[in-house]
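Side project, low priority. Logging it here so it doesn't get lost.
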Amino acid sequence: MLTRFSAMASKLTKTVVDRIKPGSKDEFHWDAEVKGFGARVTPKGKITFVVQGRVEGSGKEARITIGAYGVFTVDQARDVAKEHLRSMRMGNDPRDMKKQSEAMKITLQAVCDAYVSRPGKLKATSREAIERHVRTTFEAWKDKPVVNITEDMCRTRYREMLTKGLRGNREGGSPGQANQAFSVLGALLNYAARQHKRADGSPLIAHNPVSILRDDKVRLKPRTARILDNKVGAAWQALTEWRATAHNRDTMSSIDLVRFLMLTGLRISEASSLKWSQVHLEDGYFHLPNPKNSNPVSMPLSTQAVELLKARPKVEDNEHVFPSWAAAGHIKDPRDLMKKLSVVAGMHITPHALRRTYTNVALRQCRIEKFRTDLLTNHITRDVTAEHYFDTTNLQWLQPEAQKIGDHLDLEAAKVAGANVVALPQRA
């Protein structure tokens, strides 16, 4: 409830305001000349000019603080009060107008900071990618109001990235990088539109300017690189031989990490950062507390994976399974080893290509159902039966499937090594 105007109001002047004495609580002294304009006095004697009135058409009452006496003179404050009262008579709430004014000044950097600071919403890698694009790709825009970002700006910057990238300019980027950058920008602008409104209640950004790129964006072909079926054995055998002759700690970690990727189909970030506290060898599983899909899960280990982990040396004061002398404390990118493995595979192979290799071996070579393969690779499954009738957080029950994949790798490697092998029946 707003304070009612006093019938004893008198025109506020410098002399009148200077003579005001504070009381035991906040008191209001109203101006006789402009109804709704007044001075609020706190018990400590602080005087602040205010204006209050009713917004025409809405019935809402509003009180707005103009500013402190000393910052505003009485006459300056009265002029501001007249403007606010005029707005109210026109049906505009000055508080909404102030919010809109503040929202119109919000910069891309401020939106980014708010977006990435939401508790539990983003993984560290996603946050880093978003902040990096704002800091680099959109460096010229980051300190400008988001409402000033236009379709023409988006189209020009996108094409500029593609052109510079094609010319080999280090400031440019591949089509994939350009697409990712503008996906980030689109998400940030959508977030700004939801969080901030104009005075009439409409979104701060009515139309996302990134949408103009719908017809400009380069359509990327799905990445399908993997170790081909006839090279899987050679790759597994090469890794086994390299491991037998490795003596450097980082080299051993890199080889074992890549072998572990082939045995589990994990994402490189999930495998490389694995800690001993997550590994339960006696029970034949390891735990991922914070995977990419945000669903904590316990994954089965084949006997090959168990033996690999048992052979891993533990390093004092380093909790990682695949430790490194690097600052992170663990192997992050086994780049040199992947180059050697690419020669064996006959094509460029990345850690993620090993994930595709694992999926292909599971589906095509081991005939494992797709929903079980999705679970083994920790994909979000769309299988209703799996979602509602299977335990999708403790996957030790999929150990037989994991074992099939480990056995297949050994069998293919044995063929390459020239062993006289006979395919054994799949383990139950």
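Brief comment: Confidence is low (pLDDT under 50) at residues 166-171.
Revisit when time allows.
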